[in-house]
Amino acid sequence: MSEQQTSRADALAWVTGSDAPEKSSLNIGFMALTDAASVIVAATQGFGEKYGLTLNLQRQASWATLRDKLLSGELDAAHSLYGLVYGVQLGLGGAPATDMAVLMGLNQNGQSINLSQALKFSGVTTSDALNLRAHQEGARLTFAQTFPTGTHAMWLYYWLASQGIHPLDDVDSVVVPPPQMIAHLKARRIDGFCVGEPWSAQAVDEDLGFTLATSQSIWPDHPEKVLGCTRAFVERYPNTARALVMAVLEASRFIDESEENKRSTAQLLSGSAYVDAPLSAIQPRFLGQYQDGLGHAWLDPHPLRFHADGAVNMPYLSDGMWFMTQFRRWGLLRDEPDYLGIARQVQRLDLYRQAAEALNIGVPAELRSATLLDGKTWDGSDPAGYARSFTLHALADSDAVAL
Predict the structure, then answer these.
(1) Which of 287, 268, 297 is nearest to 210 (CA)?
(2) Helix (H) or strand (E) holding 111
(3) Which residues, in sequence order, are bridge partners of residue 81?
(4) Which residues pair with 229 in a beta bridge?
(5) How many CB atoms lie within 10 A of CB 128?
(6) Which end of the chain is more exposed for a tag (fewer CB within 10 A), N or C?
(7) C-alpha to C-alpha distances, 184 to 116, 151, 157, nearest whole angstrom
């Protein structure tokens, strides 16, 4: 039996009999970002139907709107910020604490920190120059991120702190939905932002600013978006949740199979129903080709990726715990959470393993290790100690440890 025939047989096994999806038509939320690619491809290229699902894509105006619709049940699942899911689980960010689920990872890498053209013209084109500017007397710099507990807030905070800039004391931070970053930069309401593509690339293309750092320079192959839903959805529709993971897994694998597939996906994303941005702003960084607006160009060794033989899609326990360490570091959590216990509740490793094994996709270990740009190694072994170990933080003095 060929690989294609085997895959088709596996698919039929999940859409017949007792394993059939309990709910066949799903509303799937997404934001206008290129890292929504696997969800969009799954819904539009037949991967959902293969598993007995009709995936109705619904683009959202903001992460807060997406969150609220997930909690109300208007959306069944969504392309979600990792930190959004954990923020809701912990009752942070303006929503009631609700049990949530991470079904799988959708992508790694591919976010950026951009500064304005005004800062560029004033000579603030390096981290050292930004540090000096941030500590000058006078008007404070304002940076935008996309959600209070989201990945972009955490990358922005982590990067600023690694450069000696306290993200809560030395600069102001505001929340702006991703597609609105360009307008805010153009109107000079903000001095910089951290956001997903294609909005950083488009800002460079329109001479509105430059890219000072990528998220993968902070943490190579970092966790980013996930397929998120409420725990209640998984418990009510377990077969549906597993079928959804299988559909998106196959779409993820398809995108990463070849450059041709990536180019066709970028073309799809540029459409008005999805990201609604010029292909010229989407495709280069989708392929790992960067220009920063300062005359530098490079092929990134850690580009936006969607599968990598399953390494991207595994809902690692350590990934979930890392975001909680940053919530603790920046004062969003007053007390130490049960890091591992909460991660085991949220990360649906059971469903993911079933889906991956049915598709002959390898399942990595539950914890992984990485060294971030400040030299700190994160492996999930001591999350409380890690959260307290940073020089710049928002913890009470009695909670922090001197370095």
Answers:
(1) 297
(2) strand 111-116
(3) 225
(4) 101
(5) 11
(6) C
(7) 10, 20, 20
How far, in Å, are 130, 132, 156 from residue 163 at the CA level? 9, 10, 11
- What gap in Å lies between CA 230 and CA 103, rounded to an integer? 10
Give the integer Cα–Cα distance in Å for 242 and 336: 32
Question: Which of 40, 104, 27 is closest to 66 using CA atoms?
Answer: 27
Q: One digit per residue, pLDDT tens: the chain, 403 residues? A: 344 444 555 555 556 667 899 999 999 999 999 999 999 999 999 999 999 999 999 999 999 999 999 999 999 999 999 999 999 999 997 889 999 999 999 999 999 999 999 999 999 999 999 999 999 988 899 999 999 999 999 999 999 999 999 999 999 999 999 999 999 999 999 999 999 999 999 999 999 999 999 999 999 999 999 999 999 999 999 999 999 999 999 999 999 999 999 999 999 999 999 999 999 999 999 999 999 999 999 999 999 999 999 999 999 999 999 999 999 999 999 999 999 999 999 999 999 999 999 999 999 999 999 999 999 999 999 999 999 999 989 875 545 433 2
Do residues 104 and 352 lie in contact, with contact meaning Cβ atoms separated by under 8 Å?
yes
Structure tokens at 201: 């690339």
Between CA 47 and CA 54 the distance in angstroms is: 9
Select from 156, 136, 135 the least CA-distant residue to 144. 156
Does residue 220 have a cis bond before it (omega within 30 degrees)?
A: no
| In contact, 322 and 309? CB cutoff 8 Å | no
Radius of gyration of the chain (CA): 20
Element (H, E) at 193: strand 192-196
User: Could you give all domains of the chain from N- to C-terminal order, each with its CATH number?
Assistant: 3-108+222-290+305-315+329-382 (3.40.190.10)
| CB-CB contact of 116 with 144 (8 Å) | no
In the chain, what's the furthest Cα-to-Cα distance? 71
Instruction: Walk across the sheet containing 54-59 and list its strands.
Output: 54-59, 25-30, 77-81, 225-230, 100-105
- CA 105 to chain CA centroid, Å, is 8
Beta strands in 217-333 (DSSP E): 225-230, 289-291, 297-299
> What counts of helices (H) and strands (E) characterise the chain?
19, 14
